[in-house]
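Re: [ENG-882] Designed sequences occasionally contain unexpected residues at chain ends

Forwarding the minimal case from QA. Structure tokens:
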């Protein structure tokens, strides 16, 4: 049974069960349906745990601190919404609709186990802080409980309706803000544990380079070795493998040895020496000459090209617009037998300046007019490597410290890149405390606590009707109406108009991001 079919059966089964049980649920004091699909299980007893927690905590201070945190989250959330809407006009490929819902089991990028645990605990803590701050300000809590949607999704706290309605909006805003802020603080602490403590605890077992991709054209393309570590290739060993673009001087087309480490042992392979064309740029010489991807560049103008540095060096000696001859070799594997076919191309070179003029005008300079440009992307022997330290920095979110906002967004996007949960192939290359069976699930869990809580904090701060941010925004307007210069906010119609505009704006930004890529 496919994953999608199983999810659909569970969804339809749950909705059907709730519709059948609805008449009985309405008569119960302990159950309630929200939106027809969310089952709330209410607990009237043991509510005094919130009172006890309120007495021993300085939740009033925390609730006051929560206000500026929510302001920052509103600004950040609004910025991301507007940025997403703007970028949607240049994105031609849209995400599947289920990937817009950050729910484990529905969004395939969210692992079910980590997602459910992180989401459930985060929502429980979020609601508990609403309740703790409410009790700290002497507002009764009529019930607490658990929210189910097939599986437990979280918890809820139900303050006494009359008291929460009549309380000073300053207090009510603090109650609302506390839940949002605690998710943000959990996210920060989880990320610090993940990116600093757990990152430093993972130690690379063997020196070498991470094999991220094996490109078509390489005889090793079908060997299922992506994710291994190259510990030696040709005359390079250990961390020197990272100098693959300039350090190997074997005759192109001849076989060299490659040693791989998979975390359990070593494997030896043979591969042709030389740089491989993995892509050609449209409208540039190599593409116009129909140079085949997967070709090994043997020579240019009868000069042997040993590596990427040699290619750059040779092109710098050739004036743009020169007619050149380039010889390549394409390899075909027949079992253990490898055969190569030579191809000769004749074409006129372009300048590096012409490339930057199209793709990055701000980076152009006159020196780029002197050297030739073919319009090819090359890697050594079709093996796309990444330094192990760099790969570790990506996986553990170090770029959030090094690259600011861009690094933060890269850390958020790790699941989209297939880098969290941490790939088992990468994890096996590191020595870790407690053993891999404990350490890596712990690291993944910390990441998902960060991911879920930052998402809850940002989205809940937005002034959309279904989020806490709507009540926070409304109370902020009411509080500010006490100033004589803003007394127009005391008018309920004006207040409703502003709230309606804010909700409409947020909803519109979301819809633009979903709809526009599907129609342009």
């Amino acid at each position: 049974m496919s994953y999608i079919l199983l999810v659909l059966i569970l969804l339809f089964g749950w909705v059907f069960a709730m519709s059948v049980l609805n008449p009985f649920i309405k008569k119960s004091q302990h159950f309630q349906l929200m939106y027809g699909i969310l089952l709330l299980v209410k607990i009237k007893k043991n509510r005094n745990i919130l009172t006890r927690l309120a007495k021993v905590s300085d939740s009033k201070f925390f609730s006051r601190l929560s206000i500026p945190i929510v302001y920052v989250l509103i600004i950040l959330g609004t910025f991301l919404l507007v940025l997403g809407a703007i970028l949607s006009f240049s994105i031609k490929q849209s995400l599947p609709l289920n990937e817009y819902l950050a729910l484990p089991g529905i969004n395939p990028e969210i692992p079910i186990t980590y997602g459910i645990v992180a989401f459930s605990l985060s929502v429980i803590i979020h609601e508990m802080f609403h309740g703790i701050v409410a009790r700290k300000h002497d507002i009764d809590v009529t019930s607490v409980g658990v929210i189910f949607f097939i599986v437990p999704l979280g918890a809820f706290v139900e303050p006494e309706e009359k008291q929460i309605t009549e309380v000073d909006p300053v207090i009510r805003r603090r109650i609302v803000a506390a839940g949002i802020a605690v998710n943000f603080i959990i996210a920060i602490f989880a990320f610090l544990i993940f990116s600093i403590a757990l990152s430093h605890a993972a130690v690379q077992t063997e020196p070498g380079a991470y094999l991220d991709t094996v490109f078509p054209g390489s005889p090793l393309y079908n060997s299922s070795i992506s994710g291994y570590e190259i510990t030696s290739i040709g005359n390079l060993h250990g961390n020197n493998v990272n100098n693959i673009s300039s350090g190997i001087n074997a005759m192109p087309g001849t076989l060299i040895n490659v040693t791989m480490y998979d975390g359990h042992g070593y494997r030896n392979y043979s591969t042709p020496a030389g740089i491989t064309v993995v892509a050609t740029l449209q409208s540039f010489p190599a593409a116009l000459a129909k140079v085949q991807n997967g070709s090994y560049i043997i020579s240019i103008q009868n000069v042997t090209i040993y590596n990427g540095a040699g290619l750059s060096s040779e092109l710098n000696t050739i004036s743009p617009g020169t007619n050149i001859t380039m010889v390549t070799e394409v390899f075909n594997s027949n079992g253990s037998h490898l055969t190569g076919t030579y191809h000769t191309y004749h074409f006129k070179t372009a300048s590096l300046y012409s490339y930057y003029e199209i793709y990055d005008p701000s980076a152009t300079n006159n020196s780029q007019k002197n050297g030739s440009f073919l319009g090819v992307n090359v890697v050594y022997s079709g093996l796309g490597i990444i330094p192990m330290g760099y790969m570790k920095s990506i996986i553990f979110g170090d770029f959030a410290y090094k690259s600011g906002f861009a690094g933060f967004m890269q850390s958020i996007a790790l699941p989209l890149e297939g880098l969290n949960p941490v790939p088992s192939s990468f994890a096996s290359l590191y020595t870790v405390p407690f053993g891999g069976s404990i350490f890596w699930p712990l690291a993944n869990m910390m990441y998902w606590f960060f991911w879920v809580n930052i998402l809850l904090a940002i989205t809940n701060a937005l002034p959309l009707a279904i989020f806490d941010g709507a009540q926070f925004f409304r109370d902020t307007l009411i509080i500010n109406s006490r100033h004589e210069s803003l007394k127009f906010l005391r008018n309920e119609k004006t207040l409703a108009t502003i709230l309606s505009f804010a909700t409409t704006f947020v909803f519109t930004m979301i819809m633009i991001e979903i709809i526009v890529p599907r129609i342009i």
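QA comment: On inspection the terminal residues look reasonable. The first helix runs from residue 3 to 27. Proposing we downgrade this to a documentation issue.
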